[in-house]
Design brief:
Layout lengths: L2 E3 L4 E3 H5 L5 E10 L4 H6 L8 E9 L4 E5 L11 E3 L13 E6 L7 E10 L8 E10 L4 E7 L8 E10 L2 E11 L8 H4 L4
Parallel strand pairs: 1-10
Antiparallel strand pairs: 2-12, 3-7, 3-9, 4-5, 4-8, 6-7, 8-11, 9-10, 11-12
Length: 194
């Protein structure tokens, strides 16, 4: 059974999955807010919103080792892969997925930070049903889910961190709002969470 994470909560991925994790997927899903009232009727429904999922790989000295996002769909070592850019949020379930083979993550990588950015600049108060979730790919079971609530007038969210601690992988729900169209724009906001 998946844990519904709250901001700042930390879990051991291996304990929650019942075994050592080898491959995980971080899914991101969202819907555009449908306009309300008579103006919503005339505007033809919801607006497309382009959210982007990113995984940034850091070492212990807080240096970026690599980043996987819509402009680079695979890490140089092949341990992290992005499903591709969904520019609308259309469809059910995960709109973008980042898959991580934890057994192949280089030993110098100590933290994986997952972020979302509104590339088209809409703020999170214009986005509905936004979530991220971690899935154990050995059995397709959802290990943890974090609902991106509260939105607000920001264009980015530092979602979560998967990190090594005493030889095992753990996850921390961050849920920190920020502003920026890409992960580079919010790097100063990310560093305190490493």
């Amino acid at each position: 059974m998946a844990i519904s994470l709250t901001k700042g909560q930390k879990i051991s991925l291996e304990k929650e999955s019942g075994s050592g994790l080898a491959k995980v997927a971080m899914g991101l899903g969202w819907d555009a807010v449908k306009p309300k009232g008579i103006l919503g009727f005339f505007s033809g429904g919801s607006r497309e919103i382009d959210l982007d999922a990113t995984c940034i790989m850091f070492d212990a000295a807080k240096n970026i080792i690599d980043a996987v996002w819509f402009r680079q769909l695979q890490s140089k070592d092949g341990s992290v892969r992005h499903s591709g850019d969904n520019r609308t949020g259309a469809g059910e379930g995960d709109d973008e997925t980042i898959t991580v083979d934890l057994t192949r993550v280089p030993s110098n990588v100590t933290s994986l930070i997952f972020t979302i950015n509104s590339f088209t600049g809409q703020t999170f108060d214009q986005i509905e049903n936004a979530f991220c979730r971690l899935v154990n790919l050995s059995n397709n079971q959802e290990v943890a889910r974090y609902t991106l609530s509260g939105g607000g007038k920001v264009t980015a969210q530092i979602m979560s961190k998967v990190y090594r601690h005493n030889g095992e992988w753990k996850m921390a729900a961050i849920g920190e709002p920020a502003n920026g169209r890409t992960f580079q724009d919010i790097l100063p906001n990310i560093i305190p969470f490493l």
